[in-house]
């Protein structure tokens, strides 16, 4: 597509938009756009790993509590997601602003300069992503832990298996479907995130979603925005393929469907 006299897309379809999106190297990606794409992948991977590290023990803890406490613990996990992402992001903006106790503590520990806060920064974006998508990982893992067969764990312990071996051979294969489902629910929306990066990043940690949104909303360059959206879809499909192969490798005899 190409721009008409008023900035609207017109036919015929062509590769011109991709050349504008790149103009250099693969599909004409400019260094700036390529860096934004790579940063999006990096921030998505980092946020997803952090979510897994927090959600896995949290889901196990909730599933191992008496039934009368599980509903309350799950409610505590889910309640923050009932509010709008903008409201949650503004809350983190106020928490990380200069002069707040959190920013003062970070300055005292040497993580930031005294007059500066933790916002806007890439750190704030990662925190926002983890906070927003944590429930999407906890709930599938909780469902997996509820169906956990503890007899396999007891058998491994009776055979004097080390804790890591017990986890790797008895716990992880059983919870892998929930882990894979949670990873998909977290990674895909995090990769295309716009609100959190726009508010908490302040232009310092923009992702591919921000780049596409600017082309549609500000630059009125719909063909370029459409080309960027297609790149997002392609990268997402590649990520799903990688996850599927990883699930098959880790699952062994267990079929992990994505």
Radius of gyration: 22 Å
Relative helix content: over 70%
Known CATH architecture of one domain: Orthogonal Bundle
**What composes the largest sheet?**
2 strands, antiparallel
Question: Pairing-aware structural class of the strands and helices?
Answer: mainly alpha
Shape: globular
Gap from first CA to last CA: 33 Å
Count of strand segments: 2
Q: H/E order of the elements?
A: EEHHHHHHHHHHH
CATH top level label of one domain: Mainly Alpha
The CATH homology group name of one domain? MetI-like
User: What is the overall number of helices?
Assistant: 11
Beta content comes to under 5%
**Residue-averaged pLDDT, rounded?**
83
Low-confidence sequence ranges? 23-28
Account of the 3D structure:
The protein has a domain at 28-207: MetI-like fold (Orthogonal Bundle). 71% of the residues lie in helices and 2% in strands. The chain has helices at 16-21, 31-64, 67-78, 85-96, 101-108, 122-146, 150-158, 163-191, 195-201, 208-217, 222-251; strands spanning 2-3, 9-10. The protein has a two-stranded antiparallel sheet with strand order 1-2. Helix 4 (85-96) runs parallel beside helix 9 (195-201) and helix 8 runs antiparallel to helix 11 (222-251). It is globular and about 65 Å long. Mean pLDDT is 83; it is low at 23-28.
């Amino acid at each position: 597509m190409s721009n008409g006299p008023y900035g609207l897309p017109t036919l015929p379809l062509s590769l011109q938009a991709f050349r504008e999106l790149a103009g250099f190297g693969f599909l004409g990606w400019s260094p700036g756009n390529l860096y934004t794409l790579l940063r999006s992948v990096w921030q998505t991977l980092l946020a997803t790993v952090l979510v897994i590290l927090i959600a896995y023990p949290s889901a196990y803890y909730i599933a191992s509590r008496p039934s009368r406490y599980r509903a309350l613990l799950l409610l505590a996990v889910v309640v923050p997601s009932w509010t709008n992402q903008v409201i949650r992001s503004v809350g983190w903006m106020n928490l990380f602003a200069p002069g707040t106790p959190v920013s003062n503590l970070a300055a005292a520990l040497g993580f930031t300069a005294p007059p500066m806060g933790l916002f806007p920064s890439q750190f704030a974006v990662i925190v926002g992503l983890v906070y927003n998508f944590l429930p999407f990982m906890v709930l599938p893992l909780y469902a997996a832990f509820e169906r956990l067969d503890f007899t396999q764990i007891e058998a491994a312990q009776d055979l004097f298996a080390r804790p890591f071996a017990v986890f790797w051979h008895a716990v992880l294969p059983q919870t892998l479907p929930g882990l894979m489902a949670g990873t998909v629910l977290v990674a895909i929306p995090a990769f295309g995130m716009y609100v959190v990066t726009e508010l908490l990043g302040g232009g310092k940690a923009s992702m591919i979603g921000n780049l596409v949104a600017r082309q549609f909303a500000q630059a009125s360059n719909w063909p370029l925005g459409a080309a960027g959206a297609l790149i997002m879809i392609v990268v997402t499909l590649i990520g799903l393929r990688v996850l599927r192969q990883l699930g098959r490798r880790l699952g062994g005899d267990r079929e992990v469907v994505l």
